[in-house]
Design brief:
Elements: E1 4-9, H1 17-30, E2 35-40, H2 42-45, H3 52-69, E3 77-80, H4 86-95, H5 100-104, H6 107-113, H7 122-136, E4 142-145, H8 150-167, E5 176-179, H9 213-222, H10 244-249, H11 251-263, H12 268-275, H13 280-306, H14 309-338
Parallel strand pairs: 1-2, 2-3, 4-5
Helix pairs in contact: 3-13, 4-7, 4-14, 7-8, 9-13, 11-12, 11-13
The protein binds tryptophan.
């Protein structure tokens, strides 16, 4: 094994194609090389008010998405953050290590809190410290995250280093980021300059992992494109990526081609080569067929699991037991380093 991976997803919504191609699918592949811990971060979710029944439903749904995508729970751990109290306890200690100045620099807080910062929850402010606790509580060596989480990961490293220096120990292991491959960015089907997102008001902007074949077909048919035929290989740079100038002119077209490439595990150049000069309508038909062949079975298995919530809950509960077994001794070491007496 190359190390221990920890990653988390907030149960604030149903997962979409961007989450699948950008995260979950890579996790499934990494299971062979790493010991993996995947956490449904419900405690992060409540930094913004969540309807309790929705939170429960979404926690199960994200778990079902992991399982249906091929996370093998006999090897990897899936659990909900709140099911292991170590996260909250360690977060408190780390809150006392992290500096206000460090948190004030977090760009995601500024974005999420918006103009009315006084009215944001304190939890939203210390969110990155809880994330540091998630990672450091397991001595995770590698953390796969999107671009938007890189700053939080840097903070986790800073907290680990300051803790070790302050207490003269080597207790905490600064984690390394694992940034996803080129497939990591899936854009909105309605606006190729915006990321595919759960918070876009239009459901036509995204493909949800639970969408059925007809819905997938409809969404790709309605996906924004332009009247020109599909581009040729001249739009690629020497590394095989679409040149920025070309992408800026036809972001929707290249997004669909990138989705096709990711779903079929090819370089985008292979897709562009195959469809050069063809009509969008033909390409969209093939893309739909491909997407349905990949997502159809996953969506179907998710539905089956969601009809059997006890199966999902049992997986989470077994995962939480394993998660506690790893993190409790680490927390104990940390508590001794701080000078807390055993209970
Ligand atoms: N903050 C991450 C996000 O919103 C989710 C997350 C919480 C996470 N804890 C984590 C990711 C630990 C990686 C490791 O995407």
């Amino acid at each position: 094994m190359k190390g221990r991976i920890f990653s988390g997803v907030q149960p604030t919504h149903t997962l979409h194609l961007g989450n699948y191609l950008g995260a979950v699918r890579n996790w499934v592949r990494m299971q062979k090389e790493y010991e993996c811990i995947f956490c449904v971060v419900d405690m992060h979710a409540i930094t913004v008010f969540q309807d309790p029944a929705e939170l429960t439903k979404n926690t199960r749904e994200v778990t079902a998405a992991f399982m249906a995508s091929g996370i093998d729970v006999s090897h990897s751990i899936i659990f909900a953050q709140s099911q292991n109290r170590v996260h909250a306890q360690l977060a408190w200690i780390l809150n006392c290590v992290a500096r206000v100045g460090w948190l004030n620099r977090m760009t995601q807080f500024k974005e999420k809190a918006g103009k009315d910062r006084e009215n944001a929850s304190v939890g939203l402010y210390t969110y990155p410290v809880l994330m540091a606790a998630d990672i450091l509580g397991y001595r995770a060596t590698h953390v796969p995250v999107g671009e938007d989480q890189k700053q939080h990961l840097e903070l986790a490293r800073d907290i680990a280093q300051k803790f070790n220096t302050d207490f003269g120990v080597e207790c905490l292991v600064p984690p390394a980021p694992v940034i996803g491959g080129p497939a990591a960015r899936v854009m909105s089907l309605r606006d190729g300059t915006k990321k595919m997102s759960k918070s876009d008001p239009s459901d036509y902007s995204r493909i949800n992992m639970t969408d059925d074949a007809d819905t997938i077909a409809l969404k790709f048919r309605k996906a924004k494109t332009d009247p020109a035929p599909l581009p040729g290989l001249e739009v690629l740079d020497e590394k095989g990526f679409v040149k920025a100038e070309a992408d800026a002119l036809r972001p929707e077209a290249y997004n669909l081609m990138a989705i096709y490439a990711a779903l079929s595990d090819q370089e985008i150049g292979a897709v562009i080569g195959a469809y050069e000069g063809k009509e969008f309508s033909a390409f969209k038909r093939d893309l739909t067929e491909l997407a349905v062949s990949v997502l159809g079975p996953i969506g179907a298995e998710m539905k089956r699991l969601l009809d059997h919530p006890a199966e999902i809950d049992a997986v989470l509960s077994r995962g939480a037991t394993k998660a506690r077994a790893i993190s409790e001794p680490i927390l104990t070491e940390i508590e001794r380093a701080v000078g807390f007496l055993p209970a």
